């Protein structure tokens, strides 16, 4: 905050990004852009506002991301992950690029769900189905890898729950116990309070509804219904950690990503 209409430039620093670093940065910008659209759409749906303009913007954005020209757009950055090219770059940078692609696939999946829900006319359904098919074709490897990661995460979460033990003798003591075994050593008067990590927070509903996806290679037709599940023969989106049905129906449009 200042009374002046300008600020003094104290220092100028120039940095040169490598092609791989530029790719990671471009992906992160696109991810944040899609997060913003997702949040706006969810908020508008929650407030029962007009979504026509948002639908146009959402449709344009995800179309440009999914069906980019050959050797252009976001997909061109996959070249860095090819065995013949990846040897030139560090493992850390390649890992960051892979994670960025996985995050992009996650937010694209949720945006496609919103796209289906916001369709202003049934006449646009074929265009939406084409987007889903292109998404599955152009990001097949990322979808499969991401769904595999989620499946492993769900198994791990089911086998181990992190808990905090608030004890009369040692209130700061923490312990982990198996979700299948509720007997814990120590004082019988201890009180258990579950520590809600991201996997137990509001985003778990969103993950269960939108993100647990696996690709089943079959024929080429698919459709996306309003529940967020792609059905058909091209791919099957398997539900993972589903939220309570009653809660889900009451808060259908309350799932938004914090960004």
Please explain how this structure is put together:
With 259 residues, this protein is mainly alpha-helical. Among the domains are: 19-155, Methane Monooxygenase Hydroxylase, Chain G, domain 1, CATH 1.20.58.740; 159-194, no CATH class. The chain has helices at residues 19-46, 52-66, 83-86, 91-117, 125-138, 140-159, 203-211, 245-250; strands at residues 160-166, 174-178, 191-194, 222-224, 230-232. It has a 3-stranded antiparallel beta sheet. Strands 4-5 form a two-stranded antiparallel ribbon. 22% of the residues are buried.
Quick rundown:
By secondary structure, the protein is mainly alpha-helical. Helices cover 47% and strands 8% of the residues.
What keyword list fits this structure?
259 residues; mainly alpha; Methane Monooxygenase Hydroxylase, Chain G, domain 1; two-stranded antiparallel sheet; 8 helices; globular; disordered C terminus; DOCK; guanyl-nucleotide exchange factor activity; YLR422Wp-like protein
* Main pleated-sheet profile: 3 strands, antiparallel
CATH level-two architecture of the domain at 19-155: Up-down Bundle
Number of strands: 5
Low-confidence stretches: 161-169, 173-259
Determine the number of helices (DSSP H or I, runs of at least 4 residues): 8
Helix % is 40-55%
Order of helices and strands: HHHHHHEEEHEEH
Return the structural class. mainly alpha
């Amino acid at each position: 905050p200042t009374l002046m209409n300008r600020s003094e430039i104290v220092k100028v620093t120039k940095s040169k990004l490598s092609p791989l670093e530029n790719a990671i940065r471009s992906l992160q910008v696109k991810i944040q852009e899609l997060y913003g659209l997702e949040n706006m759409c969810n908020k508008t749906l929650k407030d029962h506002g007009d979504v026509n303009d948002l639908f146009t913007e959402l449709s344009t954005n995800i179309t440009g991301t999914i069906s980019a020209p050959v050797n252009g757009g976001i997909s061109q950055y996959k070249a860095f992950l090819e065995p013949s090219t990846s040897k030139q770059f560090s493992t850390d940078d390649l890992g960051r690029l892979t994670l960025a692609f996985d995050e992009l696939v996650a937010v694209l999946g949720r945006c496609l769900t919103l796209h289906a829900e916001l369709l202003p006319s049934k006449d646009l359904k074929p265009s939406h189905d084409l987007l889903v098919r292109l998404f599955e074709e152009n990001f097949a490897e990322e979808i499969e890898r991401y769904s595999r990661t989620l499946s492993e995460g769900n198994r791990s979460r089911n086998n181990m729950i992190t808990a905090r033990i608030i004890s009369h003798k040692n209130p700061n003591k923490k312990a982990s116990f198996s979700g299948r075994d509720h007997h814990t050593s120590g004082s019988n008067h201890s009180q258990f309070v579950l520590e809600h990590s991201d996997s137990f927070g509001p985003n778990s509903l969103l993950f269960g509804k939108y993100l647990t996806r696996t690709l089943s290679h079959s024929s080429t037709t698919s459709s996306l219904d309003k529940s967020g599940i792609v059905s058909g023969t091209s791919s099957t989106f398997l539900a993972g950690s589903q939220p309570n049905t009653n809660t889900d129906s009451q808060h259908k449009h309350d799932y938004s990503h914090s960004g």
